[in-house]
Amino acid sequence: MPEPLLRPGAELLTPRRLLELDRQHVWHPYAPMPGRRDPLVVASASGVRLRLAEPAHGTSELVDGMSSWWAALHGYNHPVLNEAARAQLDRMSHVMFGGLTHEPAVRLAARLVEITPEGLEHVFLADSGSVSVEVAVKMCLQYWRSSGRPEKRRLLTWRGGYHGDTWTPMSVCDPDGGMHSLWSGVLPEQVFADAPPPGFDAEPDPVYEAHLRELVERHAHEVAAVIVEPVVQNAGGMRFHSPGYLRLLRRLCDEHDVLLVFDEIATGFGRTGALFAADHADVTPDVLCLGKALTGGYLTMAAALCTPRVADGISRGEVPVLAHGPTFMGNPLAAAVACASVDLLLGQDWQAEVKRIETGLRNGLAEAAGVPGVRDVRVLGAIGVVQLDAPLDAAGMAAATEAAVREGVWLRPFGDLVYTMPPFVTDDEDLALICRAVRAAAEAAGGKRA
């Protein structure tokens, strides 16, 4: 039997030993097993900086341009969030949510109802963003089954979307260009509209509006819900679209008795310049999914909020309960940190901070438009995107990442994108550094595209 690595009094593992064990045992996201490239070992993090256990490409500290996959809204090691976690640890770290309740979860649910679009009154706390989408879909399917219309069990979405890696969310990710095309023919077959025309500030296209209208009308008898990422399609391609299409979807769903779900796991909590992307359209969905930045990146937690119509409809059914109950649902530690994170965000002029970051990204990324191989540069809120003219292969992604690291910045390019979603606490100097790194990554990707 191997000697335990975490026994009391054991010495800290060296970076080299960590990487050996990582290569043998740890399966990283979207990577082969065993790994073919060593990840960077992070020893600690504070503010917007990741401190490496060993220098990489001449630097031992990286500015995080990714907010840890868009979750670390306030950066790292924030004293307010640290204190919230410590205080809750002294009370209880976890208690089952079935038949019990506690202050952190109740306070969080009430706070989310207060700040989300009006009409969302009921909160189901889940483990992760993908699970919140599963819960949202289950709500919609059970609503129609409880209403005596079990034939309404398909979902309608548009191409270019991404909703998570668990089973049902995979079925509404882009069916061709998405990461889950491997499962075509196995996943439930959903109804797909064309991707929305690009441009947040663009006027809605009447031809596309007619396309949406025809599709909803034709499939309303079998569709339980329309599910989309409002305003920004994130991991499916970082595309921006007009809020006008959200208003149209709300009207169409109302007219044809279809529920509307907004997946705001990536866009919630100010990332697009509005507190929630739905606010750009002044639209309330029937179900809203939140995650990622909910706890400021400290702990995994998500939420699916719904209207009384949905909750009441389920409660009137043959099975009058939502048949879902994660073990760590409503985890007190995560809920306490989430409350602190929301209060921290709303207790400052977050709109001004996001606007400052938006201005810095527009100015700093403008020169990237002239880089050979760059197809488009776009910015919305605290999101900056450089799109290449072809997808990166493995060598191109590695070259782009290494170029950013040489500049002292952590980025995670994918597909044909080099992008950044920095923490809101990123100052102007570090923001300029991130922009230089994005340009360097785009330049390094030249000639290495698939």
UniProtKB/TrEMBL annotation:
User: Its Enzyme Commission number?
Assistant: 2.6.1.62
Q: Pfam families recorded for this chain?
A: Aminotran_3
Its pathway? Cofactor biosynthesis; biotin biosynthesis; 7,8-diaminononanoate from 8-amino-7-oxononanoate (SAM route): step 1/1
Query: InterPro entries in the record, alphabetically?
Result: Aminotrans_3, Aminotrans_3_PPA_site, BioA, PyrdxlP-dep_Trfase, PyrdxlP-dep_Trfase_major, PyrdxlP-dep_Trfase_small
Q: Name one GO biological process term.
A: biotin biosynthetic process
The cofactor named in the record is: pyridoxal 5'-phosphate
Pinpoint the site Participates in the substrate recognition with KAPA and in a stacking interaction with the adenine ring of SAM: 30
Sites binding substrate sit at 69, 162, 292, 325, 412
Using the record's annotations, give every residue carrying the modification N6-(pyridoxal phosphate)lysine: 292
CDD domains tied to this protein: OAT_like
Protein keywords: Aminotransferase, Biotin biosynthesis, Cytoplasm, Pyridoxal phosphate, S-adenosyl-L-methionine, Transferase
Is Transferase found in the keyword set?
A: yes
GO CC aspect terms: cytoplasm
UniProt key word Cytoplasm: yes
Q: Which residues bind pyridoxal 5'-phosphate?
A: 129-130, 263, 326-327
Sequence similarity = Belongs to the class-III pyridoxal-phosphate-dependent aminotransferase family. BioA subfamily.
Record's function text: Catalyzes the transfer of the alpha-amino group from S-adenosyl-L-methionine (SAM) to 7-keto-8-aminopelargonic acid (KAPA) to form 7,8-diaminopelargonic acid (DAPA). It is the only aminotransferase known to utilize SAM as an amino donor.
Q: Could you describe the subunit structure of this protein?
A: Homodimer.
Question: Could you tell me what this protein is called?
Answer: Adenosylmethionine-8-amino-7-oxononanoate aminotransferase
State the gene name recorded for this protein.
Answer: bioA
